[in-house]
Amino acid sequence: MDTPSFILTLVALSALLLISKWVRIVTPLFQRYFIPTSIIAGLLGLTAGPQVLGKIVPGETFDSGLFTEGIMETFGLMPEILITIIFAALFLGKSLPGPKSIWKQAGPQLSYGLTVGWGQYVIGLLLALFVLSTFFDLPPAAGALIEISFQGGPGTAAGLSSTFESLDFEDGADLALGLATIGILSAVIAGMIIVNWGIRKNKTKQAEKPSELSQSEKKGIFTEEGESAGNLTTRQQSIESLTIHVAHIGAAIGIGLLVQWAFVELEKLTWGAMFDVYIFEYVPLFPLAMAGGVMVQLLSRRLFKYNIINRDLVKRIQGLSLDLLITSSVASLSLTVIGNNLLPFLILATAGILWNVLALLFLAPRMMPDHWFERGIVDFGQSMGMTPTGLLLLQIVDPERKTPAFDSFGYKQLLFEPVMGGGLFTAASLPLIVQFGAVPMLILTSVLFVVWLLIGLLHFGRKK
Question: Are 375 and 386 contacting, i.e. CB atoms less than 8 angstroms apart?
Fold first, then answer.
């Protein structure tokens, strides 16, 4: 009897992560640039898999590298499940303040983040219309790759694989994931360069020089008592606290499934049948699971009369899911697809990186009048691939959180993430481009880009 593939996959992921953590501890280069262990594990898995080792070693013994075909197949299935867990937990355990409160604290940050996000669509769609489709025969949907990959990150890129496939753009999933990986590495490297520049030019007053960080901080370990992983909210004789948190996430996903089914059926009966326009059948589950998480958060407090959701425990579940997602998705990345589309890939990557860097240096100071560097650097990290990257850079420039950057960024996410960076518009952007065309989408995103740019420059930028 064969060992089930998911058991072998668990063993493979565990080995990759343990080896990669050891590699990070003993490799100063990875420490200096704060390369996440999950990225190292994914690249190690990619090297040991059929894409590299399977091609190098002659014969059929290592066609799948060090992994079985079942492991590689499971790697490919994991991202869509894990991204749904991450987004379902996004608002669990969070207090949900009113829009006025969020706008007052995070308005400048929100206007800057949306300007960067809509700008990624504008640049991507312009490239798709005048370069990628014309010279490289890529579909117009390639115009969404920069925002999906950089703003959404590897989780979103991997989670949209089924959408890419259903729209006959299978190569898009690997291109998006490759761009997301490049985005994270570029965010860390470029971010550290910009942080050092900001410290030298006195753009920030709270920063620690990266060279002055302790060895344990560089290695990513706690040598003394570490931070709390979270507080238990239920007694074990009743139910394990972690179990009740997982159950809340499952309930959020269940609500997301119901919402997805309802919208698909409504679409079939209304505008889908009348105008032959179908959007929701291509929208993945994870942004709807996020909406389900908001509903579960509101219902849980009313139902149980106690706050039985601890945000720190929820974050541990999210962190586990994200590490496994990045490792499995990078390990199963198709180098053949990227190689066949190398020049378009480099064009999109270069355009995305340049836009994010220029926005930070030229727009952030004019849209966020106070503590623009701290506010801008955390958004820079997020808009290049992952929220943890942004928080990492913020930790360097504001280690004791004496500026409003951390709070304003957190509040900004409450309004930002339901739409961009893996939210509803990110998930719907591909089918929208396919259904309505790149030109109408370029007009729409250009208008939104200009609106938020003007709000940032003329409204928030003039305040002190």
Answer: no
